[in-house]
Amino acid sequence: CCQCCQDRGAFSEVVLAEEKQTHRLVAIKCIPKKALQGKETSIENEITVLQKIKHPNIVSLEEIYDSPTHLYLVMQLVAGGELFDRIVERGCYTERDASQLISQILHAVHYLHQLGIVHRDLKPENLLYCGQEEDSPIMISDFGLSKLEDKGSVMSTACGTPGYVAPEVLAQKPYGKAVDCWSIGVISYILLCGYPPFYDDNDAKLFE
Description:
- This protein has helices at 33-36, 40-51, 83-90, 95-114, 167-170, 178-193, 203-207, and strands at 2-8, 13-18, 25-32, 61-66, 70-76, 117-118, 127-129, 138-140, 147-148.
- The protein has 208 residues and is α+β, with helices and mostly antiparallel strands.
- The protein folds into two domains: 13-76, Phosphorylase Kinase, domain 1; 81-207, Transferase(Phosphotransferase) domain 1 (Transferase(Phosphotransferase), domain 1, Orthogonal Bundle), CATH 1.10.510.10.
- It is globular, with a radius of gyration of 18 Å.
- Keywords: ATP-binding, Kinase, Nucleotide-binding, Serine/threonine-protein kinase, Transferase.
């Protein structure tokens, strides 16, 4: 397949690839196995979650390739950019436009919760537009912190992004699916106001 570099992260890079037979474009996340040392459980969890998901508002995992040196995740290509960038560009959204976006996110999160999946890191940077069009569908991405709920157990690991994390997570109390709903509330506020409800350069003060 023909490839060109699309994005490079701390532990992986994403390349644009074209399937030879169909000429369909996909995004391939290339993860060096050296970078996975000590993080095997995390990537296995992410793959397990992604393999359970098929929803029009969630970026899908299509195939996995394993080589001696790399793990390759073939992902659905979404080329419209982050919601974060559109917020910066627009300043704020009308109630109508915001409600259309939030409705899509709620439907996708409801689907995840029905499967027992908690995303745990919903934020504008992890919400991608499928295309460049103004009314393009919004897609949930990045399931690196997601968790499959086990029957009879609760989550207590403190994780997520400052400003979007629910109070019970910060307090290191047991929590469940409701933490995603808190994050959606924060995103709704940002869409309508153009700025976050909670902000401080100092994370410790922000968490207070």
